[in-house]
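queue> pop job 88
queue> type: inverse folding (structure -> sequence)
queue> payload:
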């Protein structure tokens, strides 16, 4: 299928560029570079860079790998930051996850100190990579976009609230804040980066931001459901961790049925935001990929 080929081909493009950016694992200090490459190349789907590609190509109304070369630094940067967030999330002091993407978590394989340093190194590398964007003004704007996505107004803020409410029965608006920040911030950043690099009009940028927020929230709700019902094959890590860690989740607050319906509505709303846009097939398929994760 054309769409299957699209995801495979775009993932391969990101993989190749990431390998060129990251220091070989045998270089000194070897444990750090081994941990970085292990974490980045441990089976990630590359959903965020592919979302960036899909939005950019949709706005260009042209699906061609050659037009992606100028935006590759942004795609790699956002994947580096995402991987760093997973490394830090898995640490014993936060989620204490033994597995990630079906493999040992970075701290389990390399130790906590090296895992923390690997995550830090990937974040700093992401900003170094953004300086490869040829257009200086756009490069500075992209740095700002990614910094805000990671900041206390983004991933870090969501993670902080998540840790703070552990063991407490959180209200639904608090859960929404956590998930929109932890998961949604980087998805929105993927859209924002695509819009900056293309030069999109404000109305298009706002629609794509809303699309990303809905998709991100739906993705996290589905993760909560999968964790509760024990489907580790789809989840990619040990199920039941949220309950063991007394985490606030949508499935715990709403119940499984309402959580499913909430995720489905968010994905429906995502489709409505882009249905009138030309060349939107990949963004529609992106919604379908996430919908397929909803357990029956």
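queue> result:
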């Amino acid at each position: 299928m054309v769409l299957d080929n699209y995801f495979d081909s775009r993932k391969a493009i990101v993989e190749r560029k990431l390998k060129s950016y990251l220091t070989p694992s045998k270089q000194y200090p070897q444990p750090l570079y081994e941990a970085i490459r292990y974490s980045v190349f441990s089976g990630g789907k590359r959903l965020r860079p592919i979302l960036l590609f899909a939005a950019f190509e949709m706005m260009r109304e042209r699906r061609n790998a050659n037009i992606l070369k100028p935006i590759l630094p942004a795609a790699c940067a956002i994947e580096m930051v995402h991987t760093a967030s997973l490394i830090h999330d898995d640490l014993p002091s936060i989620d204490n996850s033994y597995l990630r993407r079906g493999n040992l978590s970075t701290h389990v394989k390399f130790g906590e100190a090296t895992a923390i340093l690997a995550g830090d190194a990937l974040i700093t590398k992401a900003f170094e990579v953004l300086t490869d964007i040829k257009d200086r003004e756009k490069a500075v704007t992209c740095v700002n976009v990614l910094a805000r996505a990671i900041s206390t107004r983004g991933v870090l803020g969501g993670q902080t609230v998540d840790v703070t409410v552990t063991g407490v029965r959180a209200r639904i608006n608090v859960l929404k804040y956590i998930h929109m920040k932890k998961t949604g911030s980087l998805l929105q950043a993927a859209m924002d980066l695509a819009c900056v690099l293309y030069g999109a009009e404000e109305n298009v940028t706002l629609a794509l931001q809303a699309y990303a927020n809905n998709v991100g929230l739906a993705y996290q709700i589905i993760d909560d459901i999968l964790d509760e019902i024990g489907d580790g094959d789809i989840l990619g890590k040990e199920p039941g961790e949220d309950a063991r860690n007394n985490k606030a989740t949508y499935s715990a607050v709403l119940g499984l049925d309402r959580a499913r319906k909430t995720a489905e509505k968010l994905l429906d709303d995502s489709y409505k935001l882009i249905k009138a846009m030309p060349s939107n097939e990949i963004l529609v398929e992106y919604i379908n990929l996430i919908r397929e994760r909803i357990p029956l």
